[in-house]
Amino acid sequence: MTQNNVYISDVEDATSETTVDSEDEYVGSSVAAQSQYQNHLNDSRITANNINVPAINVPDKSPISHISSVALQNSTDITFGNKTLYNGPITVNQYGIADPCRTSDLSNKSLLFLNRWKILLISAIIVIIIIPIATILTLHFKNGETDTYEIDDSPLTLVTREKWLAKPPTGDIDDLMTPVPLVVIQHTVQSTCDTKETCALLVRQIQTQHMNSPLIGDDIGYNFLVGGDGAAYEGRGWNEVGAHTKGYNSRSIGVAFIGDFTKEKPPKQQVIALLKLLRDGVEERKISENYTLIGANQVQQTESPGIHLFKILTRLEHWSDQI
Length: 323
Hints:
This protein is an alpha/beta fold and 323 residues long. It contains five helices and eight strands, in the order E-E-H-H-E-E-H-E-E-E-H-E-H.
C-alpha cells in the first residue's frame, strides 16, 4: 500500500499532516479529516463573527457634578469626562437636566416678587384714595361743618340794656326804617365769654370804646350782640340806625359775635342765639322774610367776622354772595 500525505489548510493557514497506511485507513482518515476541518472551520467562523467590541458606556442622565456654565474660546481637543476612542460612526446624545430644586426656587422667587408688587400696587391705590378722603373729612370736622344749626320753639334769651347796665346815649340817634332787607354779621375781636356776667362786662367795655370813638360816638354801634353763653345782648335795638357798617347802616341790622374767630369757630349755642334773634326779627316784622345775610367782609376791607365764623354763615339759609 502506498503511503499518502494529506494537507488540510484552515482559515488560520495552519498545515496538518496525516499518514494513511492503507486505502481503508485512507478513506476513514479522509472522513475524519473532513469532519475535523469542518469543525475547525465552524470555530473559526464563530471566532470571526464574535469580534471583541469594547462596550460603550452611556453616561447617566443624572450627572455626578453640575457645571453652571462653560466658556470655550480658541480651544481644541476638549474632553468632558473619560476620554474614549472609537473606530467607526459615533452618535453623541446631549442631555440637559434641569435642577428641580433651583427651578422651584426660581418659581417661588418669581411668585414672591409678583405678590410683593401686587401688595405695593394695592397699597398705593388705597393710599391715593384714602388721603384725599381723610383730608376732606379732617377739614370737614375742623371747620365745624358737621355741626347742624337748627332751632326749636324755645324763646331767645335776650339781655336788655338795663340788664347789662348800659349807659344812656350821648346824642340823638336816627330811627330805622323796618323791616330791613339786610343783616350784617361782624365779630368784636375780643376774648370770648360763656357766662352772662362775663358777656355783660365785655358789652359794657365795647360801649365805652365806641362812645369814645369819633367814627361811632353817642352809643354802642351794634344793634345786637350774641355771646358764647347763648344769649343775645341788646345794643341800639330794632328801631334805631346802627353804626357798624358804613354805607349799609340805614338798611340793615348789625349783629356782632363777641370774640375773635380768625383762629377758632364760635360755639354752637352762639350761632343758635343768632338764628333765634333773626327768627324773632322776622316775626316782629323788623326784618324782611326774604332778608339777605352777609358778613362785613363782603362789603368792607376787613377780616370781620373771621374766617371760621364766615364759613358758618355761608351754610346758613339766608346767606348770599349777591348783595
